[in-house]
Amino acid sequence: MKQENSAVEIVSNFLAASMAPDPVKAATYMAADVVITFTGKRVMPDAHHITAFNKARYAWVKKSIGQYDWMDKGDHTVVYSNGTLYGEWPDGRKFAGNRYLDRYEIRDGKITHMDVWNDSAEWILVPEISQR
Fold it and tell me: SUPFAM superfamilies, alphabetically (predicted)?
């Protein structure tokens, strides 16, 4: 299997486990010293903290994955995943179309860096923009 296909598969499997949510399985795709940074520069040490953060922010949330893009950087592969989030806020309001972009670095078959961006903070602050 080519490196790029393998890296995309690792990210795809990680996202499937994360959305289950199964942080134990999701963690198997991450290096022990993974660096995870969410929107707002929130640094998280592991997949369990991602699940806890999402549980506090949303009643539930899933990703509608748009596409994966990848590039070989020599000693690692960078994978981008983009698409939209859908789910429900803690107050029961449903949402969809919330854009996201995730960037992953894959080294030796594990995610070593993960950066996450999405529209959630803006939608929480100004809910009417989510209706546009």
Answer: NTF2-like
- Given a cut of 50, is residue 77 above it in pLDDT? yes
Residues 81, 11: Cα–Cα separation, whole Å: 8
pTM value is 0.91
Can you spell out the DSSP letters for 21-42?
Answer: T-HHHHHTTEEEEEEEEEGGGE
The Cα–Cα gap between 13 and 116 comes to: 17
List phi, psi (to 5°) of 73: -110, 20
Calpha distance 27→41 (Å, rounded): 21
Q: Tokens standing for 65?
A: 């994955």
Query: What class has domain 3-131?
Result: alpha beta
Q: Using an 8 Å Cβ cutoff, are 101 and 129 in contact?
A: no
Residue 27, classified by CB atoms within 10 Å of its CB into exposed (0-12), middle (13-18) or buried (19+), is buried
Query: Which of 18-27, 103-112, 116-125 has the lowest average pLDDT?
Result: 116-125
Residue boundaries of the structural domains of the chain: 3-131
